[in-house]
Design a protein that fits this description.
By secondary structure, the chain is mainly α. It has four helices and no strands. Helix 1 runs antiparallel to helix 4.
């Protein structure tokens, strides 16, 4: 095993972890929103943060943009963007650790 093999294993493990995390987070979100009806506080908090950011903005924000920022589509997009960022970080870290592990497992030739 060398660095390249370790990195390849790390990529596969990272992609599998990211997909499993996305699946679990998606199912948990569906159960929270539609099964337990417990996402109201999240929606309220997200809307309050958007309103605060709009008020602190130095440039004027048009009313249709404010309506879009409070929409469920925007919240969904923000969740997807956060998941994508987390997934990329997870794959990169997994690749680096796999390569490091491959480096540690390389056979060394005895010094002559």
């Amino acid at each position: 095993m060398d660095v390249r093999v370790g990195a390849r294993i790390g990529v596969v493990v990272g992609v599998c972890l990211a997909l499993e995390f996305g699946d679990c987070a998606g199912r948990a979100g569906l159960v929270e929103r539609f099964g337990m009806h417990a996402m109201g506080s999240f929606d309220t908090q997200m809307t309050a943060q958007v309103q605060k950011a709009v008020q602190q903005s130095s440039t004027p924000v048009p009313a249709p943009m404010i309506d879009f920022l409070g929409s469920p589509e925007f919240r969904g997009g923000m969740m997807l963007a956060g998941f994508a960022f987390l997934s990329v970080g997870l794959v990169v870290l997994s690749t680096l650790f796999g390569a490091f592990h491959g480096l540690l497992r390389m056979r060394r030739r005895p010094a002559a």
